[in-house]
Design brief:
Layout lengths: L2 H22 L1 H10 L5 H16 L4 H8 L9 H20 L6 H16 L11 E4 L6 E4 L1 H31 L4 H44 L22 H17 L2 H11 L4 H20 L6 H14 L8 H31 L2
Antiparallel strand pairs: 1-2
Helix pairs in contact: 1-5, 1-8, 1-9, 2-3, 2-8, 2-10, 2-11, 3-8, 3-9, 4-8, 5-6, 5-13, 6-13, 7-11, 7-12, 8-9, 8-11, 11-12
Amino acid sequence: MGPVLLLLVVIFVVLVFTYTNGFHDAANAIATVVATKVLTARQAVLLGSTTNFIGALCGVAVAKTIGAGLVDSTHINTTTVFCAMLAGIVWNLTTWYYGMPSSSSHALIGGLLGAALASSRNNWSVIIWSVTKTDTATGTVVTDGLLPKVIVPMLASPVLGFVGGMCVMGLLFAIIRHFRPAAINHLFAKAQLASATYMGWAHGFADGQKTMGIIALACYVATTQKNLDHAPAWLGFLRTPEFKVASWVQWSCAVSMALGTYAGGWRIIRTIGHSLVRLKPVQGFAAETTAASLLLVCGRLGMPVSTTHLITTAIMGVGCAKRFNTLNWTLVERIVWTWTLTLPGTAILAYLLVCASRLFN
């Protein structure tokens, strides 16, 4: 396979991953609004896909972290990116089949780390652990790398989601404690339309950027390694002398995610919206508002946090605001194990795929 054709295949595979992210993480944006019966499933996926599309076009800070802030691109080639994405797709489909809300973000990151390590032949310095630099746009000193941008947020975000959901729900309980149940349901059924829209936008804003960074990385590597020198003129849009997220990359990822979200993801929707804890509109509003706000803040900071982790732990926190035995703790344990295994699991799978690719040259 020629280098130009391989790059086109890689871009296609990344868009497929983006599509799987859409239907795999559709539950993140619409599970609560379906579970509380505020919207029908068809209405919810339409809302989710539309807001995902808009959100994906609203920033590139996370894309820059994924594409330029985690691995040294001098050790990366197009095959590296291909194997990283293939590992992420396999993980997404496997966890989707079993209805487990794992993190597509960490599947992508784990795949990239494992593939980069294999491509560099076990040179651990290929991973950018932590580096301090000056932002040319603002002049401020920022810290990039795996530890500050991925590992610390990965550990902190579930705690923040749980505590935030519990606090927001506790505050709402204090405000509405004298309201009649019928009035509460009527009020928050309308309010949840706003929070579901906010959550759908935040999901697109956070997750849509991650695959944009991968496509930008693939095009940058192909250009610097002169793989596109003999490409047809009509493929000139693939060339980039510096790492940047082009507008065609943003639009293609936004469309792919929106289509994937519209396809559904009903297995995971059942897990989050029905099996984890029973939700009412006020609880759905609290969980969505908490998770979306945290996604917005982390996205602005360029931190690729997991939408799945935040909304799931926010739902847990909301459920525990009244009493802890409302949660299905057996299911919680299964979810936590899935989260724990995602990043190393995809890293190992991508590493093995790169090694296997050498057998076929």
